[in-house]
Amino acid sequence: MTVRSVAVAVVGGGQAGLATSWHLTRAGVDHVVFEAQTVAHEWADSRWDNFTLVTPNWHCQLPGYAYRGADPDGFMTRDQVVEWLAGYAPTFGPPVREHARVAALTERDGGGFGLTVVGQEGEEIWEADTVVVATGGYHTPVVPPWAAAIDPSVAQLESARYKNAAQLPGGAVLVVGSGQSGAQIAEDLHLEGRQVHLALGNAPRVARFYRGKDVMSWLAEMGLYDTPVQQYPGGLAAREKTNHYVTGRDGGRDIDLRQFAAGGMRLYGVLDGARGVLLTTRPTVIYTLSKADALPY
Predict the structure, then answer these.
(1) Helix, strand, coil proportions of the chain in percent (round to 5)?
(2) Could you say which of 19, 66, 161, 245 is the most buried, measured as most Cβ atoms within 10 Å of its Cβ?
(3) 282 Cβ partners below 8 Å, 6+ apart?
(4) pLDDT tens sequence for the chain (297 residues)
(5) Are 38 and 97 in contact (CB under 8 A)?
């Protein structure tokens, strides 16, 4: 089998892989981007129908490419994000190999790496001096071990597979987790008239607007987005504290779990066990809501 060589192999053709390719192209570095499916497909395949960004459109910036539309303070829908990202690659022509899945990555004795790539025409072997893994960190859903003990009659699906209320069987729906995805999916189901039960996690809330300006604008003016993670209070661990629940739906607004409850949604504490059709939760609702409100952003 012919072995092909390249200076840098980038694994993943989402926004991180494309951004890496932009820098490599600009520097004149020989490279190739392997994408198992199609460029930036996750936005179309793994977001629900009514998904909107939680960050304003002006915040959408990639190397050499920024939002230039007519609504910088608005929030792009899923389909608008897909369209915007589709315009990125044509601006610099990255060497992307779509439908090319990196099945194995090995370190060579003499330095560099070997890659086994499975594509539409079969298997290929590549060698690269450097490999950039840009596959993201959310492909494997976090499913608690007790989920397997739930009765098979109860339909279960991860947030990446949720599309709309009509996709689900009739009856009430339990949403587990109140981070950005959980809170927004719960709202989506609630607005569709479904009886929603929401098991709260520990995500804090944040005001969408403050003194007439979006919270992201305030953070940008404070220099937060220009602060390297090494200099940020809390360091790398601070990245785990960014899942404040908020939405960009209908022009952007706060998500208020108490308002959900006033409108008929049922709130519960942390879900910590299940067997058959019985679930157990912790008595943490009041504590969770108070903590979410008390944490400053």
Answers:
(1) 30, 25, 45
(2) 245
(3) 269, 270, 272
(4) 789 999 999 999 999 999 999 999 999 999 999 999 999 999 999 999 999 999 999 999 999 999 999 999 999 999 999 999 999 999 999 999 999 999 999 999 989 999 999 998 899 999 999 999 999 877 888 899 999 999 999 999 999 999 999 999 999 999 999 999 999 999 999 999 999 999 999 888 889 999 999 999 999 999 988 888 788 777 777 766 667 899 999 999 999 999 999 999 999 999 999 999 999 999 999 999 998 887 554
(5) no
